[in-house]
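ARCHIVE RECORD
Type: protein–small molecule complex
Small molecule: L-tyrosinamide
Source of inputs: curated submission
Record status: active
Notes field left blank by submitter.
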Amino acid sequence: MTRTKTRTQRPPLFKVMLLNDDYTPMEFVVHVLERFFGLNHAQAFEIMLTVHKKGLAVVGVFSYEIAETKVAQVMDFARRHQHPLQCTMEKE
Ligand code: TYC
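STRUCTURE (tokenized, with ligand):
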């Protein structure tokens, strides 16, 4: 007899991460976190500090399309303000 494993198919999730650099102002990063990730000021400040101290932090976990959009929005916003801030995504 063949045993069939039934498993709920879940879409893969992606971590969106912010990377530290020496030039992007702290207030700009806090603003990015509030604007694109819906964090309140205290949460945004805390995550910004984690990135600043540890080098990077996960700022959210999303479906592929949403993660890709967040990364593009952050990169575009940073570029338009001429800050070297980097945002990347990685499969969970
Ligand atoms: N390290 C930056 C500074 O000292 C602040 C910073 C925090 C930059 C988080 C990027 O993702 C970042 N101005």
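CURATOR ANNOTATION: The first helix runs from residue 26 to 37.
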